[in-house]
Target: Thioesterase family domain-containing protein
Amino acid sequence: MSDNFTSQPTQSSAHPFAEQLSHHGIPETMWPYLHLNGVGELVEKLEIIFTEFDPQRVTATMPVAGNTQVYGILHGGASAALAETLGSMAAALHGAGRANPVGVDLNITHHKAGRSGLATAVCTPIHLGRSSTCHEIVISNEQGQRVATSRITNMLLPVEK
Model:
């Protein structure tokens, strides 16, 4: 797996969120950019686990159990949060420490109810520019059926030195 961060030294377990970041599948090369908040509280609550972390493809899983709405199916807001998390992380990879992503548009279409097991999200770039990115996120169930499709646009704000 290659990414924009491979030329930077990895962090030791002295990182304030080392255990959390490891648990959620965040590569150590990304840790320096997550020193203030780790993965964030919502990623922990939703139990999102990253399984692939590359500028051209970011993937993660999230259990349906614990992330359901009143009828016992996957909550659309949980699906949207999963999509936004992947799209923002992918934009951060593209920004490579020179820019911070800020979501400016998120849309999601729900195709099928998520009923059990793990939802898997795959995020791929549509546009990777200097000041913005756009990614598509496809969320599927364990049978490989598409549950939702999302698109996120992030503005890339220059890191202040």
Notes: The beta strands are 49-54, 57-63, 99-110, 118-128, 132-140, 146-158.
